[in-house]
Amino acid sequence: MSQISETVKHQGDFTQSVFDCLKHMPATVYDNHYNGTNDADRLWIAVDGMGGDYAPGTIMEGCLRALELLPLKIRFVAEIKILKLAIDKLNLEFKLNRALKDGLIELIPSGESIGMGDEPTTVRRKYRASINIAMDLVKTGKATAMYSAGNSGAVMASAIFRLGRLAGIDRPAIGALFPTKDATQQVLVLDVGANMDCKPSYLHQFALLGNIYSRDVLQVEHPRIGLINIGEEDCKGNELCLKTYPLLQAESRIHFVGNCEGRDVLSGNFDVVICDGFTGNVMLKFLESVGSVLLEILKLELPRGRRGKLGSAFLKRNLVRIKKRLDHAEHGGALLLGANGISVIGHGSSKALSVVSALRLAYSAANYNVMNDLEKLSTECIH
């Protein structure tokens, strides 16, 4: 019996259908009971089980669903006593015991967790926190990627302290996938919160990082790179934009197509959009509100009475589909680009669907060997 199983035994013997964001996975992932994937083909993902508003129970629920849909194995890092209570509350004992028996999940005990309100530097003091242990699993090669829905500042700090930056990268950036007019296309926006104040050289590096991710993971052959600005002309914008534009224009390794106004971010005319973390985070939070606000407006505008009910019945399915396309839960997380390892940062309010989506993102990044090209980029010593 493994050390992890012994730990679980000591604590007590406990331990929907496929949705749109998984449609492009290989057909084998739809089979029941762990989808028939060969054990050797599964990738290990480390999960910070204590990160997020609904952790650890909902995070575990999402992980167990992911094991049925994706070719993964999970090393779940959590405070065992708290996890046991959550497992009992959500009636996940049977599924967890089955996954443990099949060797698809391991439980790894952690120490005091890092709260959503803690300073990022708390990762140094709480060295046995679940975020740190998950990062160490990536560093030591026991996991190909890690996922956390916890304190995003702490995740980034832990990644820098534990994994380190890629050589030549001054600041890692958080890249999030936004929907576009084309249901089959997404646009990568970075940075969406890691760096509030940026230099032109940082945005130059973000463009190079985003280009690799879009090409390798999203399978865009020649990603179109845009710079967020208030106008299309190269003479528009603040000092940051004016100094960044010529750097991107002169960069031969990317296909820079010019400035991207706010109205064009979701147009489908760009594959990667670059901005400072303050601007990107405002866009991300705004987008999160659009789906629910749109539904509320339509509900208010529909006629009342029998006509309104009939119209709602016809529109309901389409409206739900629109909301899903705009819902951050369908994408689940954002990739931290520029660290020396794959880290996916989930929304603090992530529930099971978001967890599955984020784990799919982590799997995709690891499966397409995005780190190989990122490491190659770092050897070029970009500045």
Task: Give the end-to-end Cα distance, rounded to a whole number of Å.
Answer: 50 Å
CATH C-level of the largest domain: Alpha Beta
Sheet with most strands: 11 strands, mixed
Percent of residues in beta strands: 5-15%
The stretches of 5 or more residues where confidence is low (pLDDT under 50) are: 1-32
Q: What form results from the Cα inertia axes?
A: globular
The CATH topology assignment of the largest domain is Rossmann fold
Specify the structural class: alpha/beta
Number of helices: 13
Q: H/E series, N to C?
A: HEHEHHEHHEHEEHEHEEHHEEHH
CATH architecture term of the largest domain: 3-Layer(aba) Sandwich
The count of DSSP E runs of length 2 or more, i.e. the number of strands, is: 11
Q: Could you characterize what this model shows?
A:
The N and C termini lie far apart (50 Å). Helix 2 (57-69) crosses helix 12 (352-367) and helix 10 (277-301) runs antiparallel to helix 11. The protein is 44% helix and 15% strand. Helix 2 (57-69) links the parallel strand 1 and strand 2 (72-78). With 383 residues, the protein is of the alpha/beta class. The protein is globular, with a radius of gyration of 21 Å. The chain is built from 13 helices and eleven strands. The chain folds into two domains: 20-169 and 338-382, Rossmann fold; 175-301, Isopropylmalate Dehydrogenase. The chain has an eleven-stranded mixed sheet, with helices on both faces. It catalyses: a fatty acyl-[ACP] + phosphate = an acyl phosphate + holo-[ACP]. Its EC number is 2.3.1.274. One of its GO terms (biological process) is fatty acid biosynthetic process.
